[in-house]
Amino acid sequence: MNAPSNTKILPLEHIQAGFDTLREVKQTFAQRGWFPATSGNLSLRLSADGADPLLVITASGKDKSVDTAEDFLVVDLQGKPAYPTHLKPSAETLLHTALYRRFPEVGAVFHIHTVANNLVSEWAAARGSVTFSKHELLKALQRWEEDAEIHIPIVENHANLPRLAQAMEAVIHPDVPAVLIRNHGVTVWGKSVFETKRHLEALEFLFEYQVQRWMIERL
Ligand SMILES: CSCCC(=O)C(=O)COP(=O)(O)O
Ligand SMILES: [Zn+2]
């Protein structure tokens, strides 16, 4: 772990457990090719009850398919490192902190770039959202009704991160745990690492389904 031994912010074991948890997720997603070209970022809240305003987040610009001692750091809800470190938090930390501030129950936020999520975000950008209905996997997003549907909002890919965070904050809905960023990727959240991973897997399934469906329809 890259935290100095005199860290007073939380028990070191607690921080180490957060690093270990995110490392497992990082390895799983890397094996799926979900972090091309250093893209993607992961974070979790360092307390089960939301009392501690500290997060573990991936360091910026790392090859996320490789494990090193410098993959994660701890930041506060403003995205500032919680202890002196040469590591830089993810360039997209503001997107994570905006979600933790807005939803005290959010325990983890994941962001990945895939061809499928980029294609869907581009295809539906003019509408401002993409809708999925009557899919079994909507249950993984807490939609249990037979005629369930979900609208995933899409924002433009502003290069200015505070602007991108603002755009995302303007469209997030408490019942829809994801935002697509046009030709960039998807940011997904949930109450726990388990729930956020389930949300992301369900959404990536739906994005791939959509892309393959267009291909079939054009045959
Ligand atoms: C080459 S990826 C461009 C930045 C990005 O979109 C991303 O998800 C990764 O940024 P980070 O600073 O978290 O490594
Ligand atoms: Zn990104």
UniProtKB/TrEMBL annotation:
InterPro entries assigned: Aldolase_II/adducin_N, Aldolase_II/adducin_N_sf, MethylthioRu-1-P_deHdtase_MtnB
Residues the entry annotates as binding Zn(2+): 111, 113
EC numbers for this chain: 4.2.1.109
Residue ranges of domain Class II aldolase/adducin N-terminal in the record: 20-211
SUPFAM superfamilies to which the protein is assigned, alphabetical: AraD/HMP-PK domain-like
Enzyme class: lyase
GO cellular component terms listed in the entry, alphabetical order: cytoplasm
Cofactor note: Binds 1 zinc ion per subunit.
Pathway named in the protein's UniProt entry: Amino-acid biosynthesis; L-methionine biosynthesis via salvage pathway; L-methionine from S-methyl-5-thio-alpha-D-ribose 1-phosphate: step 2/6
Catalysed reactions, as listed in the record: 5-(methylsulfanyl)-D-ribulose 1-phosphate = 5-methylsulfanyl-2,3-dioxopentyl phosphate + H2O
Biological processes per GO annotation: L-methionine salvage from methylthioadenosine
Cofactor: Zn(2+)
Keyword match Transcription regulation: no
GO molecular function terms noted in the UniProt entry: methylthioribulose 1-phosphate dehydratase activity; zinc ion binding
Keywords attached to this entry: Amino-acid biosynthesis, Lyase, Metal-binding, Methionine biosynthesis, Zinc
PANTHER family tied to this protein: METHYLTHIORIBULOSE-1-PHOSPHATE DEHYDRATASE
HAMAP family given in the database record: Salvage_MtnB
Sequence similarity: Belongs to the aldolase class II family. MtnB subfamily.
Function, as annotated: Catalyzes the dehydration of methylthioribulose-1-phosphate (MTRu-1-P) into 2,3-diketo-5-methylthiopentyl-1-phosphate (DK-MTP-1-P).
UniProt name for this protein: Methylthioribulose-1-phosphate dehydratase
Gene designation: mtnB
